[in-house]
Amino acid sequence: MSDLTTSEKLIIEPTFTTPEIRFDPAARHFFIGGNSYPENSLKFYGPVLQWVQNWASKHTPSSDTLTVEVKLEYFNTSTAKVLLDLFRLFESLHEKGQPVQIRWIYLKEDSEMEDAGLDYQAAVRVPFELVPVNE
């Protein structure tokens, strides 16, 4: 991967088994949504985690809040681990003084996704909002 600047974006289009990922550092917005049950989670998410880690290592905290939105309809257990790793990367940015807000968006009637959000909320020390929606 090339040297990352804040103008670069990470964009991965969704497939049947992998989510849409959009990270626009200039807009301070990271989004992951859809379904996530790739056959090989490390192969799919490894470059994403590396990209965010590289960006975070060069990022100078600002007063602008970095918003992380997660709107998954379904994810498997290997994705669950990757999500925690991703949240920990954003947690380390938060600890360095970068305001971070994680928004866990889920269908109001999906109690499993609500429970998953509550588990992540308890696991990371970052402002973490559960956002039930009617869709």
Give a quick rundown of the structure.
The chain has 135 residues and is an alpha/beta fold. It contains three helices and six strands; from the N terminus they run E-E-E-H-E-H-E-H-E.
Give the helices and strands, then pairings.
Elements lengths: L9 E3 L7 E5 L4 E8 L4 H18 L7 E10 L1 H19 L4 E8 L3 H13 L4 E6 L2
Parallel strand pairs: 3-4, 4-5, 5-6
Antiparallel strand pairs: 1-2, 2-3
Helix pairs in contact: 1-2
CATH architecture: 2-Layer Sandwich
Query: Fraction of residues in helices?
Result: 25-40%
CATH topology heading: Transcription Regulator spoIIAA
Shape annotation = globular
Assembly annotation? single chain
Give an account of the 3D structure.
The protein is α/β, with parallel strands linked by helices and 135 residues long. The chain has one domain (10-133): Transcription Regulator spoIIAA (2-Layer Sandwich), CATH 3.30.750. It is 37% helix and 30% strand. The protein has helices at residues 41-58, 77-95, 111-123; strands at residues 10-12, 20-24, 29-36, 66-75, 100-107, 128-133. The chain has a six-stranded mixed β-sheet with strand order 1-2-3-4-5-6, covered by helices on one side. α1 (41-58) links the parallel β3 (29-36) and β4 (66-75). α1 runs parallel beside α2. The longest helix has 19 residues, at 77-95.
Keywords:
135 residues; alpha/beta; Transcription Regulator spoIIAA; 6-stranded mixed sheet; 6 strands
